[in-house]
Structures are given as C-alpha cells and as structure tokens.
Write a structure and sequence with these properties.
- This is DUF1059 domain-containing protein.
- It is built from 1 helix and 3 strands, in the order ββαβ.
- The chain is of the alpha+beta class.
- A hairpin with a 5-residue loop joins strand 1 and strand 2.
- The chain starts with 5 loop residues before the first strand and ends with a strand.
C-alpha cells in the first residue's frame, strides 16, 4: 500500500517538516506563515 507524504518548507527560515496528509501540511504551513509572516511552500513527496 502506497501513501503520500507532504513536505512543508519555509522559504525564509530553516523550518521544514514532513506531514502524512495534505490537510495537515496546509495547516502547518498556514500556521507558520501567519505566525512568522514567512513564505511557506507545500509539496507532495511521494
């Protein structure tokens, strides 16, 4: 069984993580962007 992982990476600092769902990745990205006023990207890894 294959599952996806989503990479969350901040373009303005060293914050990054892998998340098991697109929804969780988006939540983490939005939270960081709002809190730190940084540009955050989310991409599917697998």
């Amino acid at each position: 069984m294959s599952h996806s992982l989503f990479h969350v990476v901040c373009r303005d600092c060293r914050t990054e993580s892998l998340r098991p769902t697109e929804e969780e990745a988006a939540r983490v990205a939005d939270d960081h962007a709002e809190r730190a006023d940084h540009a955050v990207a989310v991409g599917r890894v697998h």
